[in-house]
Specification:
alpha/beta, Cell division control protein 48, ATPase_AAA_core, cell division, ATP binding, Helicase, Ruva Protein, domain 3
């Protein structure tokens, strides 16, 4: 009997034929899709699933956070390589002798120091304006200790322990001091006025309170026979008084600006490194004109004098032009001579720039 609509019921053989035809058509359509499109569809699906899945997203964020924290700790407790030695530091003759006698020798020869009842300082605080060579002095102390046969570790905190997250700064400080406990170690806290900022009754920041408290606790736990603690600051008044008391930083050394004799020695070192020839008359003039400048200023001044000489030899300024070896040697020799007018112009311009910065 015919169904509604006038369509007759299909037999089983007809239904099988239709099913086979549909499968063939579907296979042909799949084969016509390029492989790249298939890969793109798969990648998009995987990315979508990863993005829309809350658990996966949360795990990824936690993994990234853990990796960042681990990286921060690695930066904070990475051993440093000293780049200076006392022989390479110009000037500071009396200061270098004092540091070697009262700090380096007692720490390197502790048996002899104990026999003569000489105490190793628990902490040394270097105070001076920026550019006077405080970091270079610490590097030189490490170099001196290793020259004397003491294989010291060298850790330096220059703000890498500071974190914007609550409690992480204190944790980084504890990790740093824990690494130093292994000894023998030189632990250098640069810019102590930043991490050990003075607390006051008006200070409502609980973060600074806990950071300084943690720092005090860790310093008290140090063994002076294993760890030589050195810190530096540009502003001693901003350092918490509890840090500066005897038993923590019991030796405070003021690093002064270079005097005329020190400036002459510093200039000789830098001019020799640049292979520049300078007369005695020129040296007297530059030493007299640079009163009140730091060691970093003197180095920068020599750099400018050297570059002015290079520009004179290469009027077009293109000193990187490929030349023959003979011609390069000739140019270099010509640039090694300093002209009076160039020296005067560089000094005058540098002092002018410095005055503008101060104002």
């Amino acid at each position: 009997m015919p169904r509604r609509g006038g369509n007759k019921r299909k037999s089983s053989s007809q239904r099988k034929a239709v099913t086979v035809a549909r499968k063939k058509t579907s296979n042909k359509q799949r084969q016509s899709i390029p492989r790249a499109a298939k890969r793109h569809a798969t990648d998009t699906t995987d990315t979508t699933e990863a993005t829309t899945s809350p658990g996966c997203s949360k795990n990824k964020r936690s993994n990234l956070s853990s990796a960042a924290e681990s990286q921060d700790k690695k930066v904070c407790i990475t051993q440093q390589v000293p780049r200076h030695s006392f022989d390479g530091l110009g000037g500071m003759k009396d200061l270098k002798g004092e540091i070697r006698r009262t700090i380096v020798r007692p720490f390197a020869h502790q048996n002899l120091a104990a026999f003569y009842n000489i105490d190793t300082p628990r902490g040394v605080l270097l105070v001076g304006v920026p550019g006077t060579g405080k970091t270079a002095i610490v590097d030189s102390i490490v170099t001196d200790l290793r020259t004397l046969g003491l294989n010291v570790r060298y850790y330096q905190e220059t703000g890498s322990c500071m974190s914007k997250y609550y409690g992480e700064t204190e944790g980084n400080i504890r990790d740093l001091f824990q690494a130093a406990h292994a000894g023998p170690t030189v632990l250098f806290l640069d810019e102590l006025d930043g991490i050990g900022k003075a607390r006051s009754g008006n200070d409502t920041s609980s973060v600074n309170q806990t950071v300084v408290t943690t720092l005090l606790s860790e310093i008290n736990s140090l063994d002076p026979s294993k760890v030589l603690l050195i810190a530096a600051t540009n502003n001693e008044a901003h350092v918490d008084p509890a840090l500066k008391r005897a038993g923590r930083f019991d030796r405070i050394i003021h690093v002064p600006l270079p005097d005329p004799e020190s400036r002459r020695e510093i200039f000789n070192l830098y001019f020799q490194k640049k292979e520049l020839e300078i007369t005695e008359k020129q040296m007297d003039m530059i030493v007299k004109s640079t009163d009140g400048l730091t060691g970093s200023d003197l180095k920068c001044l020599v750099e400018r004098v050297h570059f002015r000489a290079i520009e004179r030899v290469f009027p077009s300024g293109i000193w990187w032009t490929k030349l023959s070896e003979k011609e390069m040697e000739k140019k270099k020799k010509s640039a090694s001579k300093i002209l009076d007018n160039e020296l005067n112009a560089v000094i005058e311009q540098y002092l002018k720039d410095r005055n503008n910065e101060d104002n």
